[in-house]
Amino acid sequence: MQEESNSNINNLSIQQADKKEERYGYVHSIESFGSVDGPGIRFLIFLKGCHMRCQFCHNPDTWSMANAKKMTADELLNKAERFKSYWGTEGGITVSGGEALLQLDFLIELFQKAHKRGINTCLDTSAQPFKHEGEWFEKFKLLMDVTDTILLDIKHIRDDKHKELTGWSNKNILDCAKFLSDINKPVWIRHVLIPGITDNDEYLDELSAFLKTLKNIKRIDVLPYHTLGVFKYEKLGIDYPLKGVSTPTNDRIENAKKRLNG
User: Fold this and answer.
1) Short-list 174, 184, 175, CA closest to 217
2) Greatest Cα pair distance in the chain
3) Mean pLDDT of successive 10-residue stretches along the chain, which has 262 residues
4) Considering only CA atoms, which of 149, 150, 158, 160 is closest in space to residue 130?
5) Which of 37, 172, 181, 242 has the CB geometry, 3.0–4.6 Å to 214, for a possible disulfide?
6) Going by DSSP bridges, is the β-strand pair 25-34/42-47 parallel, antiparallel, or unpaired?
7) Rounded to the nearest 10 degrees, how much is the dihedral formed by the CA atoms of 129, 133, 136, 142?
8) What's the CA gap between 236 and 170, in Å, rounded?
9) 3-class secondary structure per residue, the chain
10) pLDDT value for 18
11) What is d(CA 10, CA 37) in angstroms, rounded to the nearest whole number?
């Protein structure tokens, strides 16, 4: 009887050892209906965590991993599929942040499982964590195998100005853009137009020249700077860096669109 009991205990231990530890994503929020965050209608997943400190960021509450809701890939996909009837032929899920690439392992699992369910995947990223080498790059390539579209935010084309604006270099971000072109991954470029910072014809023309070297761009969006997130800074007790900066005029928005899409 004792031998049988020990055998049962050993079998249970083996089963527990074989069981993979469940992976969680650190989620800020979800939205069931997005119409400008990738092709078609999208279910939006916002992950927590970001290293950049963009002066115009309207979601400072996503910077830290603290107070995140821990959810598995299947939990998120089960929620998303409730809205599948609205997606049409192009829609699906879009994962944004924060900076979603800080949760690379979770993203790979989420997108792999999404593809198994026939769900279109879109990644909204600033590519700040990108590195063109080592284990991280090998994982990134795995992610690209199950990513249908990339929304790539380019904050500033000049490295020194990018550092002033975000606290980080843009060299690896532009390298990511080139890699995505090399593998012909469909990309939507996003560029925030900020008076006195990015709303400069010389900078816009430099960005346009760079984008013309890429062969995979499906769309270029000019996003007018706004102050809708200022109240979050006040709530968090953080000084807002761009006090007094106004939204760009319609003329300047149209100018930027023509220069970047010309």
Assistant:
1) 184
2) 86
3) 44 42 93 96 98 94 94 98 95 97 98 98 98 97 98 98 97 98 98 97 98 98 93 91 95 98 86
4) 150
5) 181
6) antiparallel
7) 110
8) 27
9) CHHHHHHHHHHHHHHHHHCCCCCCEEEEEEEEEECCCCCCCEEEEEECCCCCCCCCCCCHHHCCCCCCEEECHHHHHHHHHCCHHHCCCCCEEEEECCCHHHHHHHHHHHHHHHHHCCCEEEEEECCCCCCCCHHHHHHHHHHHHCCCEEEEECCCCCHHHHHHHHCCCCHHHHHHHHHHHHCCCCEEEEEEECECCCECHHHHHHHHHHHCCCCCEEEEEEEECCCCCHHHHHHHCCCCCCCCCCCCCHHHHHHHHHHHHC
10) 40
11) 50
Give which of 48, 53, 54 is closest to 29, Cα–Cα.
48
Q: Indicate the residue type of 105.
A: D
69 within 8 A of 46, measured Cβ to Cβ: no
Amino acid at 127: A
For residue 89, give the amino acid letter: T
- Tokens for 17, please give them: 């050892």
Count of alpha carbons within 13 Å of 194, Cβ hemisphere only?
A: 22
- Do 188 and 141 touch, CB atoms closer than 8 A? no
Amino acid code (one letter) for 185: K
Measured distance CA(150)–CA(143) in Å, rounded:
11
